[in-house]
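Fill-in record for Programmed cell death protein 2.
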Amino acid sequence: ILLNWNVGGKQNEPHLTTCLDYVNVPTTKLANVIYSSVCHQSYAGGKEFWSELNDYFFMSQLHYGFAEPAPACTLVSHLFPDKIGGRPAWLALDHLPDEAQLVCCSCSQPMAFLLQLYSPLGDDREDCFHRMLFVFMCKSGRCFFNSASSSESFAPSSVPFRVFRSQMAKSNPYYSLTPPDEKQFTPEEMLDAFRSGALPAPNRLTPLCPICGCRGTKICANCKKASYCSRSHQLLHWKLCHKRHCPNYDYLDEMFSTNPFLLPEFALVSEAAAESDIVNSHTQSDDDSSDTEAPAQTLTSVDSAEFAALETISRKETKEELIFSQFRQVMKVEPDQVIRFQRGGEPFWVSTTQRTIPSCEVCGGKRIFEFQITPQILSHLKLDCVKEPSPDFATVYVFTCENSCSLPRTVQAADGRTRTIEYQEEFVAYDPVP
């Protein structure tokens, strides 16, 4: 890549042009990087510029995710689905997250499964031949309201979401080395295959709660067959059906059923973003950012200290609203997008909140952006409440270990016993609606 300097009206003002004969890179992609670099005062020849240029070309392409209806029997573990709602299609079928990891930090109620993304790392990592990310969320709008009002939407202790990473090699204890059969099974055929062992049943190694599909550690005292993640789910299941069918309980009988706790289920369909979409989103953000200052104040009846405080608040609120307006404009490119995926890329920030993304607690590596969830997903979840606040957010950000450090791993507890980890918690945060 050859970078040339032109005088653009002011002495030493950089304007970059390219000769792309040496590498086969679309001009729009390079133009986007150069534009972004110049706007952030990273000049050609500078360390920051080349770092950004390198990161751009080697990060994954931006993809949109869309919710589409699909039969539940096509969204099961051995098919490695991208999906929203329903019960999780666990990747590792053993050593699932425990109950304490899946309760809301604010209300202590079980979180609902929100979505999962299949995100393998390619041929460079044999131990990541299969790789899946799982996101859970609290269904109580009060928990969103409380964390938003406390301005701690990036503090892990207040975020009503959790995200977990699971990964494994092609040769693993759970799945065949051959690709899954593309034959379309009926639900009855799928259940027969689970029972016969022809396909890996989701509850083969770990008892699952019939309400949410998560690990069940509390056993029904009567039938000794049903397992639950929590007392609340045991009571709900008893009222729904277990009171009538307790002696004959079989988890697989309810595997494709719905209940009031589960979120509506959809397939997540991916589509690569057009290069023009990416360039335009950066351009729109930068063009609008020049207007972020608030209008001149005319408050003359307050003293200088009060005026300064009011001016600071006004500027911040105006900037927050403007940034969210930019975000809405970007969403209009693909109005139905519920996911923006770009591992190693940059999220579209929706606020000016100062953010500290913690390093991986296991390997010490930095965490990088992987995807964000847009507020359009809320229209599919049917979470509107009449008597209390409904869950709401501007966007949800997911960051994962850049090394995607190896799983499974074994840890030793204080009592000397060992524990196998196949689901590593990663970092998730969100911005409330301004």
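KEY FINDING: The chain has eight helices and 17 strands.
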